[in-house]
Each structure stands twice: as structure tokens, then as C-alpha cells.
Amino acid sequence: MNEPLMNADSVRERLLTLRFELVRRFGVPGLAGVVLLCAAAIVANGAMRMQAGTRDLSNEVSPARAAKKADVAGDARASADAAMLETLPELFPRFAHSADDIAAILARAGENNLTVGSAEYLVVADSGGRYVRYQMLLPVKDQYGAIRRFLASVLNNLPNAALREIHVERPAVDGSVLDARVRFELVYGTARP
Hints:
This protein is 61% helix and 21% strand. Strands 1, 2, 3, 4 and 5 form a five-stranded antiparallel beta sheet that branches. By secondary structure, the protein is an alpha+beta fold. It starts with a helix and ends with a strand. It comes from Paraburkholderia diazotrophica.
């Protein structure tokens, strides 16, 4: 039981000796400077820890903040998209223009010297009534390059045309002529709102 008291007394004695030795070597102003340096080191350590904690917290909050900004930007974009979608049907030609588009597709086939078979046609109206889709299945025969030029020509010159499907077969193993079935879809706006 006496032993802990002895340790406390010896520690107190060593600290007093250290204090007197520091005052003797550095003087009172030097000792005050050492105390201030120690206090500054403790404050700097606390500030660095606080900054690290703040950075960690900021890293946790940043994804949520970015998601919130994205939601706000998404809402603004969605309303702009909705406004654009309202005007989109007006950008498409009317269904009455379909005969001119079919004639243009057949003319492009003729320009590329394709052998054209008998075409199949299908008209599909959207459930909302804002668009009419006109599908054209066109069998053609020629070399790959000519078929490819034909497709590019149609898609580049008819903005309301889409290549829906293409099926290509080579009837002869050593032949260069291909049989292709090309399905175009032409999209038209309706006059109804």
C-alpha cells in the first residue's frame, strides 16, 4: 500500500526537478515558450483530426448532395423532355407523305441497281394515337456493297425512316450475290393532338 504512494511521490519529485532544471536552463521566458509550443502542437493535432473528420463527413455527404443535384437537374430535364415530347409529333411528316417516301426508297434501290422483289406493307398506329408507323419489307438482291450503299442512302435521306430488320442469305457458297430482306419503318405524326 505504501508502494503506490512512493511512486506518486517519486513522480512528483522528478517533475519538480525537471521544472527547476528547465527554469535554470531556459529561464522563465524559455519555459513559457516551451509550454506555448506544446500547446500549439496539441491544438494543431486537434485541428488536423477535426479536418480529417470533416473530410470524411464531407465524403459521406458528397454522393447524397450529388444525387440531390442530379435529381433536381433530372426534374428540370424531365420537364424539358416532356415539353419537347409534346412538340415531337409535329416534327414528323403526316401519313399522307408516305407514298412519296415509298417512292424515294424504291428510287434509291434503282439508283444502286438492286434487283427488287415484291414488297410487303404494314401500317401500325400507336395506342396514344400520336404516331403512325408504316413498315415496308423489301426483298433485294445484289452484292454486299450495293446493299449497304442502298441502306445508307435511304437512312441518310429519309429522316423519319429506321432500319427495323435485315436478313441476308448467300444462295451459292461461291457466289457474290446476296438475297436480303430489309424491313424499314417509316414514322409519321398524326393530325390528332
